[in-house]
Structures are given as structure tokens and as C-alpha cells.
Amino acid sequence: MDTVLVTGATGTVGSRVVDRLTDRDVTVRAATRDPADEQFQGDVEPVAFDFEKPETWGAAFGGVDAMFLVRPPAIARVGDSMLPAIDAGARVGVERIVLLSVLGAEQNPLLPHRRIEKHLRDSDATWTFLRASFFMENLLAVHRREITEHGEIVVPAGDGETSFVAADDVAAMAVAALTESGHEYRAYDVTGPEAVTYYDVAHTLSDALDRSVTYEAPSLARFVRHSRRLGRDWSFLLVMAALYTTARLGLAGRVSDDVKRVLGRPTMSFREWAKRNVTAFDPSADEPENNSLNGSE
Ligand SMILES: NC(=O)c1ccc[n+]([C@@H]2O[C@H](COP(=O)([O-])OP(=O)(O)OC[C@H]3O[C@@H](n4cnc5c(N)ncnc54)[C@H](OP(=O)(O)O)[C@@H]3O)[C@@H](O)[C@H]2O)c1
């Protein structure tokens, strides 16, 4: 593969894919709606790209052999523009497409990723699906403030388990699928090594941060009140409620060894991730800019 286009290149997973690709023998093109000089390190080519602006597609897709495809979490705005963009890419020779999908997409007709998977299956592109579990990074991107300011995690997940995965492991899978053979027409479940409850998450964070973090399995009503107090808008908190309800119902806990088989190494545990991210939970550290969740914005 000579030239790889990374969509979502400024996001949680895409930024890590860009970093990892710079170690490979490929030209890396990083797609963002707002390219700026020195935004990316090394020989990365930033390119203006917007799923909603077909006029940006030609320059982004030209000469590209493989693409990492991220569905931006802004459901309402991006909508169906992804499918024509995929077709445009395939028409100009993007042969291989690696989609960041969601664990369970094959069973859940409500997930937009399922429609994108079907579209890719029906296309001429060589596809790989990375069906990722909840990112560990959500704890920082979405819940950092309640953890640092109040020492609690407020999600309506009951005692359901989640097979959290580190974004870095998702990115490593993407790079393997984009640059190596043997991943064509495969769908991988990209999970961490174990499924844990939010009680476990709170306990592990308390140990790592050396201060108390609690989880009390709040009701949906308390979660909604809490979210409104934090200023989350209704569409975001409804998507969050739906996602955490899947965890409460036990639908987010599937553990797979796909990552270990592909990468030939163990995946990161939540305990290890927490230890590595202690400083990011320091109350005086900068707020992360990104606060999107799986399927939401
Ligand atoms: N969070 C989870 O736990 C989880 C788990 C499994 C799967 N997923 C899936 O992962 C995907 C999100 O990945 P992520 O968390 O890495 O992304 P992210 O951090 O939320 O970043 C979103 C990216 O989308 C880009 N973007 C936004 N609007 C765009 C547009 N109109 N056209 C082109 N690009 C646009 C942004 O780039 P610019 O602003 O620079 O243009 C940004 O790089 C979603 O499909 C989600 O369902 C998430």
C-alpha cells in the first residue's frame, strides 16, 4: 500500500492511526475539515476533507490506495453523506477500506455502522471491519470532570460488564489491516482482555489515582439530572443513556481474542490504562477537547 488516507485523523483513534502509520513505509494523508500546518508530526500530508462537502473528496481520495474510515459521531449532520463518499473513493481507485465499526454492529439494526458495513460488503472495495468495544478513553473524554471534581462516575450501566478497549489497540489493528495482507473481508471484534463493571472501573481508578472514585449504579433519572447539570444537551444524553443501557443489559461485555491473534501480543487491561493515564486525571491538567462517545457527539 503506497498512500493511506486516514479519516477522523484528529480524533481519538484516527490520530493514533496517523502516528503509527508514520513508522510504516507508506505516504500518510490525514483528513480533517480544518487542515493547518504542523498539525501532524513527521511527513504526514494534511488534507481538507468533509463528508458533507463533495467538493473536498477529489483531492482527498486522489492517488489513495487504502483508507481508514471513521464515521464521525455527529449522527444528524453527517447522515447519509458517508455512503456517496465511499462510492466516490472506490470509483477513483481506493482499493482497501478499513472501517471503524462498533461491537455488535452485525446484530443491531439501530446502529448506523451496520448500514455502512452493508454498503461496503456490496461495494467493489476490499473491506475490513473493526468492531470496537467502548474505548477506555471515554473515561477521560466524557467523564473526566465528574471523576476529577466529584470523585464519582455517573452512568446508568447498573452492574453490567463492558469489555473496554484502549484506543491504541484499536489503532494498532487499523494499521495492521491497512498495511498487511490477510485481513481482507474480515470482521474483527476489537475488545480489551476482560469485561469489567463500572464498580471495577471505579475501584481500579481509585487505586491508580490514590484517591476515592465511586460508582453507585445510578438510576436513569439521576443520570439525566446529572447530565443536564453538566450542560449536556438532550440528544447527547439520550445517546449516552442508550449506550449505557446496552451495558446494563449485558450486551457490551463480549470479550474476543481477535486483537491478540492479529497483533501477536496481549491487549491493554483497564488497570494498565489507568496507571498510564494518572496525570490526565489530575484536576489541574487541561480538559481534553474531544467529548464524543461511541455513536454520539
Ligand atoms: N467511543 C467509543 O467508545 C467507540 C467505541 C466503538 C466505536 N466507536 C466509533 O468510533 C467512531 C468515532 O471515532 P473517534 O472516537 O476516534 O472519533 P472522535 O474522536 O469523536 O473524532 C471525530 C472525528 O471525525 C471528524 N469529523 C467530524 N465531522 C466530520 C465531517 N463532517 N467530515 C469528515 N470528518 C469529520 C473529526 O475531524 P475534524 O474535526 O478534524 O474534521 C474528528 O477527527 C464513531 O463512529 C463511533 O461510533 C466509538
Automatic annotation (TrEMBL):
<protein>
    <submittedName>
        <fullName>YbjT</fullName>
    </submittedName>
</protein>
<dbReference type="Pfam" id="PF13460">
    <property type="entry name" value="NAD_binding_10"/>
</dbReference>
<dbReference type="InterPro" id="IPR016040">
    <property type="entry name" value="NAD(P)-bd_dom"/>
</dbReference>
<feature type="domain" description="NAD(P)-binding">
    <location>
        <begin position="8"/>
        <end position="180"/>
    </location>
</feature>
<dbReference type="InterPro" id="IPR036291">
    <property type="entry name" value="NAD(P)-bd_dom_sf"/>
</dbReference>
<dbReference type="InterPro" id="IPR051604">
    <property type="entry name" value="Ergot_Alk_Oxidoreductase"/>
</dbReference>
